[in-house]
Amino acid sequence: MSQIDNITTFNFSLGREERNKLNAHSSFVVWFTGLSGSGKSSLANMVEKLLYEQKVRTFVLDGDSLRKGLNKELTFSLKEREENLRVAAEVAKILISSGSVVLASFISPKQANRNMVRKIIGEQDFIEVFVNTSLETCEKRDVKGLYKKVRAGEIKNFTGIDSPYEKPINPDIEIETEKENLEEAASRILKLLQKKLELK
Q1: Which domain holds residue 182?
Q2: DSSP state string for 153-194
């Protein structure tokens, strides 16, 4: 018998439904996936600004922030990368219960990773945004200087170089950052979210 079998969930008086009514909008996760430097965080940030202007309660959950805090003990092995995403999904699920629209920005390179995240969060609460930017463009941007370190041999198993990135099979929306600017892309995402924000 596992210790988890001894855990009993307390039945709190206020839950997600009450918080959603208070906020006057529903809560869910918008999951941004793409290569490092594709523009995921910039796009999540812009979408959050647009939602804020509409008085929507939001929270940006970023891979780097999680790595510096909650998951700082995890390495970048394939197994621990998956654990990083599992924890991210569980945190996002808690934030949904708080009544927030969660904008999660994680490379999440494998379809199996994203399927796991979708299962944890729940199909009805998961919107997948594929930030489709070519490796060449990401490497030219190299906003964090990571690609330079990869090419110098300082970083191994880097997604897109010596570790594969599997493109989403059927994302809810695909953003091609080389064909549309940040404002246009954010507006398209916002349009997709409008119906999802409405309380049933």
Answers
A1: 15-134+165-197
A2: TSS-S-BTTTB--PPPSS-SEEEETTTS-HHHHHHHHHHHHH
Q: What is the pLDDT of residues 63-117, one digit of tens each?
A: 888 888 888 888 888 899 999 999 999 999 999 999 999 999 999 999 999 999 9
What is the number of structural domains in the chain? 1
Q: pTM for the full model?
A: 0.91
Q: Measured in Å, how far apart are the chain's first and last C-alpha atoms?
A: 40
Is 158 part of any domain? Answer: no
Q: In the annotation, is 108 catalytic?
A: yes
**32, containing H or E segment:** strand 29-33
Catalytic residue among 108, 134, 163, 187: 108
